[in-house]
């Protein structure tokens, strides 16, 4: 079977000449603002087309009009022969850090570096992260360090203000099913991530179901992963436990997408017989003292 011929990419660069009045333009920002006005902007000029644009300066450094090095305050060069030349080039990729917390403490983490472009979409970013981490794109919970969630898959990274100084926190989405055992089982799905502590996950369920955590007992009924043996041994399947006795993260407990935890309401604590008798004895003593007998 014959091999397919290698494809060669042909790049066509068409010269665009645009007469403009630069009387009021003193800086790069002034020029960009003037050129991007809808009534002046030709269809072939788009500063958001994935290329880097800059004013060509013969005797100095080019002046960027977009991209990470763009400085709107940069003064325009002296105009020679009544012409300013704007050049373009494909955008250079830049590195960002992806951080994978191994616990709720962000200090316990794994880090990788990937290379992206401003015109990449969030979907393309997820694909790169999947190849680095093994976390499927649809299981990724992506946030910036300040907690802002990344936009939908078709969003451009530039729209989410992703730059070469950005760190993306990557968590594995691990929603669990909680089944409250009453006359009928009431199921509640709680959105969680794998590095969260099991105790914290139980508190999130209590909060979502408007229950008091002190009144609840739990039992792991479906556990997909193997987990960390020392942690799993602490809470075997079907064993009743409380939130305060829960240890480890969801991942360390072998809990994964769609796993089940049954929830039971504890019976109210009854006073012991000794306490009740003690109370009666004290009452009898008080009556005798009051009556003098």
TrEMBL record:
Which InterPro entries does the protein's record reference?
Answer: Ubiquitin-like_dom, Ubiquitin-like_domsf
Q: Where is the composition biased (Polar residues)?
A: 274-284
Q: Where is this region: Disordered?
A: 267-293
Q: Which parts of the chain are coiled coil?
A: none
What are the residue boundaries of the Ubiquitin-like domain, all occurrences included? 94-170
Recorded hits in PROSITE patterns, A to Z, give: UBIQUITIN_2 (PS50053)
Name of the protein described by the UniProt record: Ubiquitin-like domain-containing protein
Origin species: Cladophialophora chaetospira
Lineage of the species this protein comes from: Eukaryota, Fungi, Dikarya, Ascomycota, Pezizomycotina
